[in-house]
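sorry for the late reply, my laptop died twice this morning and i had to redo everyting from scratch. anyway the thing you sent over, i finally got around to it. pasting the sequence first so we're on the same page, its 331 residues, then the predicted structure underneath. double check i copied it right bc i was rushing
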Amino acid sequence: MIRLIQYIDTHGQRQVGRIDPDQGEQVHRLLNAHSVYQLAQNAIAQAIPLETMLNQFDSILEDYTLSELLEDRRVISPVDHPDPAHLYVTGTGLTHTGSADTRNSMHSQASDDETDSMKMFRMGLEGGKPQPGEAGVQPEWFYKGDGSIVMAPEQTLPIPSFSLDASEEPELVGCYINGPDGTPYRIGFALGNELSDHITERENYLYLAHSKLRVCSFGPELLIGELPDDIQGTSRIHRQGEVIWEKPFASGEANMSHTIANLEHHHFKYGLFRRPGDVHLHYFGTATLSFADMRTEPGDCFEISASVFGQPLRNRWSRVESTPVAQVKKL
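ok and here's the structure:
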């Protein structure tokens, strides 16, 4: 499998690097390639797979490793758009086996009636894996923001002061670009942290949309090619240099109640999301989150890892002051 990174070299220039898993952390800089976005557009124009086009590029071996790039905070998100307003960040929930338990407890009712979360989860189990070419049941879907809310690996995640919580959600991220005719193309997959405000969500299920309007991160590496059916990873929280919480997570279709194709269909069936040239980052959901066990604090570092994606995704978070009351002026 090929993995790509985007980074800033020692001269302050954007570069695209290729990571070959059998060569460890060595970074092979692709000559005359400065963005994955442009590489994807070129592959579409030539009507060839991205992997085929990547094999046509000459490369040189950098003097530094990926770990050194990450330590220097020179790795940027593995897919972006020249205009952040043309990058959508969205996601689906209740898509993984076992994912409904925490959500169900957050939205539990005084009666014995089944919650909407559990109903949605069961719908996915029963109809989320249709035959190829058929549409299955639609999943829960949410909007998270545009490219301005995407933070690079190792960057600090700014959380507004009105937030009641900041908790990680370790997920897979599908990365897409729309061709000139609006056809969506999948560029690849990456690890993601779809950070959310779960206390706000717990107050009322209708606050789910508010709880998702937070920053997020993904990467550092972009997996090109098919996604393994069974992905095993680990989510950790570090506080003052020590691991204070750790739990495994599983993803990939073997551990999901929906197929990737069904989740993609129910996103891109909307014409709004097939605008030529736009980039989409779609989070596929999680079954594990620390909120069920603890509360994070400013300065905590989230670490999400899965060997198939190479280096872990790490981000600390800090609280930033927000406008007390948004004032709208009359024109």
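The CA atoms of residues 77 and 99 lie 27 Å apart.
thats about all i looked at so far, will dig more tmrw
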